Amino acid sequence: MKKIVLFLHGYGSNGNDLISLKEYISVAKPVEFISPNAPEPCELNFFGYQWFTLKERSFEELTLGLKSAFNYLDNMIKDITDRHSVKSDQISIIGFSQGSMLATYYALLKETDFHSIVSLSGSLPESILESLTILENNTKYLIFHGRLDDVVSYQQALQTHQFLESKNIKNKLVLDNDCQHSISPLAIEEINLLYQDWL
C-alpha cells in the first residue's frame, strides 16, 4: 500500500527546505514525499511562507492561527488522500518548528488516525494543549527537540510529551543535548526507527 510522508516547513521557510530529508529517510516503498509551501507569504521574510502569523506569540494569536491553518491543512490532506487513494493511517506528517506545532494540533483534533506525527523543534505550549478537547487518538507521536534551541524552548517538547502521556497517547520524546533549532542526525535516526515497521 502506498505511503505518504508530508513535510510541513517552519516559519519563513518554504517547501524546498525539508524535501531534501527524503534522501536520509528509510521507508518501505511505494512512498510519496510531499513538501508544500505554507499558504501565506511570511510577514518577516518576503522569500518565505508562514502557516499563520507569529507577531506576538500570544495564546489568542496562536489559537486563531492554528484554527485557520487547521482548515487549510485539512483540505490539503483530503486532496492527498483522494489523489493518491490512501487512507489517513498511511500518512506520516513531519513538521519542523511552526510546521510541527500545526501537525501536532491538527492530529490531536482529528477523529481519523495517522501513521505518525513527527515533531521537530516545535511542539505546542502548555496553554494551547490544555485548551484542546481530545478524542480517542491512535496516532503515534515522535517529539524531537534540541536542548540548545534558542528559538523554541525544549520545555514545549516536555509539555507536549507530558500532555500526551496524560491522555495515554503513544509518544516518544527525544532530546538532543548538542542540538540547536535544527534537525540533527539523531532526529533522522529516530524517524527511521519509527518507520522501520511501517509496511
In short:
By secondary structure, the protein is an alpha/beta fold. Helices cover 35% and strands 19% of the residues.
Question: Could you explain the architecture of this structure?
Answer:
This protein is α/β, with parallel strands linked by helices and about 200 residues long. The chain has a single domain (about 5-195), classed as Alpha/Beta hydrolase fold, catalytic domain (Rossmann fold, 3-Layer(aba) Sandwich). The protein contains 6 helices and 8 strands; from the N terminus they run βαβββαβαβαβαβα. The chain has helices at about 15-20, 60-85, 100-110, 125-130, 155-165, 185-195; strands spanning about 5-10, 30-35, 40, 50, 90-95, 115-120, 140-145, 170-175. The strands form 2 sheets. A 6-stranded parallel sheet has the order 2-1-5-6-7-8, with helices on both faces. A two-stranded antiparallel ribbon has the order 3-4. Helix 2 (about 60-85) crosses helix 3 (about 100-110). The protein is globular, with a radius of gyration of 15 Å. The mean pLDDT is about 95.
Kindly state the percentage of residues in helix: 25-40%
- Would you tell me the structural class of the helices and strands? alpha/beta
CATH topology: Rossmann fold
Order of helical and strand elements:
EHEEEHEHEHEHEH
Mean pLDDT: 95
Contiguous uncertain segments of 5+ residues: none
- The proportion of residues in beta strands is 15-25%
CATH superfamily annotation:
Alpha/Beta hydrolase fold, catalytic domain
Count of all domains: 1
- What's the gyration radius in Å? 15 Å
The biggest beta sheet reads: 6 strands, parallel
* The CATH C-level class name: Alpha Beta
Count of discrete alpha- or pi-helical segments spanning 4 or more residues: 6
Shape: globular
Distance between the termini: 8 Å
Query: Total strand count, please?
Result: 8
Strand order of the largest sheet: 2-1-5-6-7-8
